[in-house]
Every structure is written in structure tokens, then in C-alpha cells.
């Protein structure tokens, strides 16, 4: 078990965040928010994948007006993402959203932020101070046209300044994020702020790229922080359909034993020692496991070197040898099966578990 | 820059390993090693993907006999993976391999290990002590049929015992790995051994699963260790064709700034604020970048929130707005382009970089 940083708990809608509660998986729609039908449809797909809080961009008043229709048709808390115009934040609050994300780089006038904070306080709606390395408030250029690079300290300073301002307005339902594309920048920023504030931290590697590269980059960055106990909610940012963001988030959490959604498949890379078509077998087993959605650990191993050891540690395991294999169940040898029966035997046992 | 653990350097063939040298990317074939033609073909594909050391299983004497044919046709060092039969290790050394991997759980008789070590010493061929949680030497059962679980300390003890034995035979060309499927077990094992030995460490999360889940699990585990400066060589184990193992390894290293092979694409997840088909654009740009193979950082951003900031930090960037976008090159605004010209303008600039 990883010792967690214990933050001040809050709830987004009915979802508890922080205070040592399980790490919450978030995502964000990429439909046009004004198109409530398309947005609701995408949120339903995200819910199905295990998304627990969803964020939508609110770039104009028509988007804000679509929020009640969206909110009434979904089953998870709705967060409005606001930049530039504080009136959109007020409209989103009036529309009944469960959370706000404000970027301190993009709504900077104090009286306008104060109006939003007062409305959020009345409604007891949490605000995430969402700092992003790509949109820090400008500093004087070092030389003409030369912008100071976004450092972890600068990101933290911007977040702290905003937090102090909200606290001065007696607002404490705060969550903070400090996202960058660069993993070391992100990790150092969160490490810096973690001991300085009591608030839950939302983790993300921003603009991480397409599904494959972005999932790996997010796994590295979020993995480092989560293993240090930092992080109360996470979002994986991938270019494309958002459903894979949720899947990747659970793979990250599952690999650290923090959450498990659905099965875990232990399968060997195969090598010159492998005498069966393990790749197809592993894929077929994974497909069935994903469909079942049970939190099982299943091992599909191609040889006698690590097979029995790994199979023994799983709920169900197959250690394949030449022409036959041994099925393990909860650490005990169950029986020997012929190669032609590997898949059917595993599927039968999986269904029975 | 991540401060690295400085290990005692050695070379596998002509590839320097340890001593603060760049982290080396390895993979392993899953062809039948006896089929030299298929194995060489797969190694050529791995070389093309950037694999720097390749390992082949040598499960029998026919596989050992194929090694000279394989070695003569490839361009990267060849490591033989041996279990159970020390004579296969002797045959592999005689065949001219550049490294050996021995699993101390599976070749346990001291005089037989000694014969292998003496031959490796004569030829100055390094040996990796490759401990695997799934194949630790047996301990007395806790109760009948109840096996003690593989702990990090047990993995380290097994590796140290083997290392002491090799050292007693005046053999010091040692590399160590301590692989498990479980990320915390793996991380703790490497953390334990890192200060106890001077040797290079080879990292891996074993039997990590299929391409998607296994890449994410490996990124979490290897990412945590690499960010602590631990790890001289890495292998990502994925069920399936080994080429994606190499791609994932570079994505992991690149996200920590440790190595870069080919381009890095910064692309936003898009949201309700995005007014262009960024997903297709990002994919098209990524394809071109991968084909070019240059170590560029290119940002493709869908809106004015983080777009200009991220685009400015990249070698080349596009911050798209409504109907048009701004191209950045090395931090400077280059020009504004119409939406229909986004792809062609980016590709032209990429080709010119």
C-alpha cells in the first residue's frame, strides 16, 4: 500500500475527493458543448468506461446555456472549464454545475474573480485552480520577444497567489492542478506545492499527445507522483476520443495497486522458448476479461521458466508447455489441459470465478 | 537533467553500458531461435526501431548452434538467455555471443555456474544476473503447498548471493535485473539493491501484458526508477511482436528527457473550445514526423488558451483558432495560415527544419 498525502476532503457533486479517498478518474469532452445531445452521448460513453467526474469547456454563453440540459441527462458530476470571461463562470454556476475550473492565467482581474468566488461559496461549489505551463500569466520579457520559460516554481507561485486570494474571500473548497507537457516540470511543481497547501491535487500531463505516446508520457508522470502518494484526482489528456483517457487512467492506477477496474492480465512477451501461440491466446483471454469487467488477475504464460510462479500468484493462470499446459486457480494446480483446449479451459474457469 | 546512479561501466559487444552512459534500449526475439532466418529478420526490424542490444532464448542445443549464423547477420550485440542447462551457456559463449543472461533460480548447482563463469571470464563476456519474481529458487513452504510470496528483499538476496559467487570467481562483468509484474515490488527491489552493488542495473516489468496495458504498466514502473536515476539498460516486455517494446522504451525515455529518438508531438486533447479537426491534423503530423525520424518537438494546439504558450516552447508549433492559426518557429511567430492550409504549412516547415 502506498502512503497517501492526506488532503482536505471535499465533494464534487456526490463524489468524495481527497482526504485519503480513492483516486478519482476524470475526463473531458471534446464535443461542441452547445450540442447537448452529442455532449451527453460522449459523457455516457465516458461513464461506461468508468469516468467519475467530467469536465466540459464553456467558451461562450450558448455553451453555458446548454449546461442544464447536459447535467439533467448524465449520472456523474459536471465541471465547467472557464477561461477569459468570468460571466461564463457565473452562468455555469447558475446552471448548477458541480465544480468550476478556472485558469488563473486567463481570468486575472481581481473583482471579477471575486464575483465568481462569492457565487461559488453561496452554492458550495468547489473551484479548481488549474495552472497550465502553456498559459501562465505573462511576466516582463527577459529581452524583447524573449519569454521566461515556465518553471515549476513559477507555476506554484501562480497557484498559491490565486489560492491566497480565494482564502481571503473565505473560500476553501479548493483543488489545485499544475500541468505541463514536460514530465520533470510537472513532477517538480506538484512536489513543491504538496507540503504548502492542504488542498486536494488534481494531476495531469497536459497536451500529452496521441493515444500511444500520450498514454506512456502520462503513465510516467502520473506514476511518479502517485507512487509518492501525491494526487487525489487524475486526468489523462490524449488527442482523440476521450474514452481511452479513462482506460489509460485505470491502467496507471491498477499498475500501482491504487484502483482496479476490470481485470489485470499477466502475460509473457513470449520468446524462442515458447511453444504455443500465446499472443492470440492472451488477446482472446483479455477480450473476454474486459467484457466481463470483473477485477480478476489472470496469468497466461508461455513456458515453464516463469509460468508456474506467475500463474500461482494470479486468481487463474495457465503455464503452457509443449502441447499441454497446467491450469492454476488461486495458487493451486487445478489440472493439465491439451493445447487445443487452452482457450476454452481458461474461459470456462474465468466464467466460474 | 536527472542525476543518474553511476554504475561500474562495461560493454556488451560495442555498446557501453553503465557509468552514466545513456540508457540503452534492449528487446528480445520471440521467433524460434533455431530458425536463424526468421530470427535475423526480426532482429533487423528491431534494429530499425532503435533496439541497441537483442536477447534470444537458447532453450536447446539446436538453438545454440544457430547463434553463429544469427550473430554474423546482425548489427547489434547478441545476448543469450539461458535457463536450466549450463551446457547451453557454454555453447552460447563458444558461439561468440556478446552477453549471457542467467536466471539464478534456474541454474543453481555451483560447479556448473562456475564452469560458465570461467568461460565468460576468459572471453570477457558480461553476465546478467536476471532475477525474476516468478522463478525464484524455492524456499521451504510456509505450510504444505503454501509458497512464500516473492518479496523485494528475497529478490535482492537471490541476486546478491549470485553476485558474491561470481565475484569469488574473480568475475566482475556483472549486470543485475530484478523483474516482477507488480510495480511496487519491482521498484522496491531496485531501490534496495541500488546502493548495495556497483553494477549496472537492467530494468524491466516482466510479463507486463498486451501492448496497451503492458506499455502503461512498464511506463509507470520504469518511469519511477529512471526518474530516481536508477537503470542503465531497459527492456519493455509486451505480449506480441517485439518492435512496439522498443517504441515504448523510447517514449518512456523521451518523456523524462533521458533519450530522444525521433520527434516529440505536443498535441492537445481538444475540447468544446476547439474549432478545427485537430485530431486528424495531429495524427497526420505525427505520421510525417515519425517517417522523418528527426528529433524535433512539434506542437499542434487547438485553441488560444494554451496554444501560443506551448507552440512557443516547441521547435515548430501551430496554435489554431477559428478558421486560421498562427505558426511558431523556435519561439517566434512566423505567420498566420488559413485552416485549409494547416497541414501543408506545417509539413513544409517540418521538412525545412
Core attributes:
TIM Barrel; Sulfite Reductase Hemoprotein, domain 1; alpha/beta; five-stranded mixed beta sheet; 11 helices; 20% strand; homodimer; eight-stranded parallel beta sheet; 353 residues
Using the coordinates above, name the CATH class of the largest domain in chain A: Alpha Beta
- Which shape of chain A, going by the Cα principal axes? elongated
The CATH homologous superfamily of the largest domain in chain A is termed Dihydropteroate synthase-like
Low-confidence stretches of chain A: none
CATH architecture of the largest domain in chain A: Alpha-Beta Barrel
What proportion of the residues of chain A form beta strands (DSSP E)?
Answer: 15-25%
Number of strands of chain A: 15
Question: Helical region count of chain A?
Answer: 11
The largest interface is: A-B, 93 and 93 residues
| Structural class by helix and strand composition of chain A | alpha/beta
End-to-end separation of chain A in angstroms reads 25 Å
Rg of chain A, rounded, reads 23 Å
Q: Do you know the CATH topology of the largest domain in chain A?
A: TIM Barrel
Give the count of structural domains of chain A: 2
Largest sheet of chain A: 8 strands, parallel
Read across the widest sheet of chain A, the strand sequence of neighbours is: 8-7-6-5-4-3-10-9
Amino acid at each position: 500500500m502506498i502512503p497517501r498525502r492526506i488532503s482536505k476532503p471535499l465533494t464534487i457533486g456526490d463524489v468524495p475527493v481527497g482526504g485519503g479517498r480513492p483516486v478519482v478518474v476524470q475526463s473531458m469532452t471534446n464535443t461542441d458543448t452547445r450540442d447537448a445531445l452529442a455532449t451527453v452521448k460522449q459523457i455516457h460513453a465516458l461513464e461506461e468506461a468508468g469516468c467519475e467526474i467530467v469536465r466540459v469547456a464553456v467558451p461562450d454563453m450558448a455553451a453555458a446555456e446548454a449546461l442544464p440540459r447536459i447535467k439533467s441527462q448524465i449520472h456523474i458530476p459536471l465541471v465547467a472549464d472557464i477561461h477569459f470571461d468570468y460571466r461564463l463562470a457565473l452562468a455555469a454556476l447558475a446552471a448548477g454545475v458541480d465544480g468550476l475550473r478556472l485558469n488563473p492565467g486567463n481570468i486575472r482581474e481581481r473583482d471579477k474573480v471575486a464575483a465568481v468566488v462569492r457565487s461559488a461559496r453561496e452554492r458550495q461549489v468547489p473551484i479548481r485552480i488549474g495552472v497550465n505551463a502553456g498559459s501562465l500569466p505573462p511576466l516582463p520579457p527577459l529581452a524583447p520577444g524573449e519569454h521566461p520559460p515556465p518553471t515549476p516554481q513559477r507555476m506554484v507561485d501562480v497557484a498559491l497567489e490565486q489560492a491566497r486570494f480565494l482564502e481571503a474571500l473565505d473560500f476553501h473548497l479548493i483543488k489545485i492542478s499544475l500541468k505541463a507537457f514536460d514530465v520533470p516540470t510537472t513532477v517538480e511543481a506538484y512536489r513543491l506545492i504538496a507540503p504548502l497547501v492542504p488542498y486536494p491535487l488534481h494531476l495531469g500531463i497536459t497536451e500529452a499527445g496521441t493515444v500511444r505516446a500520450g498514454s506512456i508520457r502520462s503513465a510516467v508522470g502520473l506514476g511518479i507522483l502517485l507512487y509518492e502518494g501525491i494526487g487525489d484526482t487524475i486526468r489523462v489528456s490524449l488527442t482523440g476520443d476521450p474514452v481511452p483517457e479513462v482506460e489509460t487512467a485505470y491502467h496507471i492506477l491498477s499498475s500501482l495497486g491504487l484502483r482496479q477496474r476490470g481485470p489485470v492480465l499477466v502475460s509473457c512477451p513470449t520468446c524462442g522458448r515458447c511453444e504455443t501461440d500465446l499472443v492470440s491466446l492472451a488477446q482472446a483471454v483479455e477480450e473476454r476479461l474486459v467484457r466481463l469487467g470483473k477485477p480478476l488477475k489472470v496469468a497466461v504464460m508461455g513456458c515453464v521458466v516463469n509460468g508456474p510462479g506467475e500463474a500461482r500468484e494470479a486468481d487463474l493462470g495457465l503455464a503452457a508447455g509443449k502441447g499441454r499446459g497446467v491450469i492454476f486457480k488461486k495458487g493451486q494446480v487445478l489440472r493439465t489441459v491439451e493445447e487445443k483446449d487452452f482457450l476454452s479451459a481458461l474461459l470456462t474457469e474465468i466464467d466460474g470465478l
